[in-house]
Specification:
Layout (H helix, E strand, L loop, with lengths): L1 E2 L2 H21 L6 E7 L3 H17 L2 E7 L5 H13 L5 E4 L9 H7 L11 H8 L8 H12 L8 E5 L6 H8 L9 E5 L6 H6 L3 E4 L17 E4 L3 E4 L7 E4 L4 H4 L5 E2 L6 H20 L1
Parallel strand pairs: 1-11, 2-3, 2-4, 5-6, 5-7, 7-8, 8-11
Antiparallel strand pairs: 9-10
The protein binds guanine (GUN).
Guanine (GUN) binds next to strand 4 and helix 6.
Length: about 290
Amino acid sequence: MKILDGKLAAQAVKEKLKIAVEKLKAEGKKVPHLAAILIGDNGASATYVAAKVKACEETGFISTLLRYDSSITATQLLEKITELNKNSAIDGILVQLPLPAHIAEEEVIKAIDPAKDVDGFHPVNLGKMVQGQSGFIPATPYGIMLLLEHYQIETTGKNAVVIGRSNIVGRPMSILLSGNTPQGNCTVTLCHSRTKELETHCKQADIIVAALGKPEFLQANMIKKGAVVIDVGITRVNDNTKKSGFRLLGDVHFESVAPLCSWITPVPGGVGPMTIAALLKNTFQACQQRH
Ligand code: GUN
């Protein structure tokens, strides 16, 4: 069993971007600028956004963090997004999800200029992705594709099972893995909460992407020997032995599954850093296309 080290692969992406940004600076050109909107006091969301802002700093990007109380109205938020759309200094806009229940995520996503939608959640970018056109690919599935590419994981003709049908991970992941590309040339099965005989599907998979958000769901009896396992889960569970009061668990029972795999991602240090690397790549691309 070998580890798909997301920290290492993300570092490689960031190093390349850093050099490209230094070149832009030396030529007197515009440096990528990401605006991140964080609403409310969800601890996990705050941690993710802080990591994104830090990665911008490390890579030489400019970032602006806009924090709002969870009482912000949908109208106020949409006004803010319109302002950012118009502001030519901003290349990428990210609204951290989930949003408070009184704000419709779909409306907010639709309000972002597709040319600045570095999360790739806008219907225009999702449509382009489905058709294999260049646009912004959602950061988590994009990061997973970059990880597969980094470790040269063979996908042609392989059976892939994606567990979870969310708009931001499972569904785009199933499209990317089934595209006619070197990194995604699989026969894909998209499994979800209503799938019958999930274990049978998983047992036939050469590649499994677990993105259902249930800690340690994927167990050894569901794995074919030699499978590649990608764990997207990152759930906080109470742990009084930790200073933070919690520990992070993936969707895969690592201890029992890992010995059966050819490759597996750890949690943390697998998909998480790749998501951020992919976001930076999208933001760099947005800046290049706009200037
Ligand atoms: N919440 C969970 N994942 C993501 C992501 O990739 N982008 C945003 N904006 N919010 C998220």
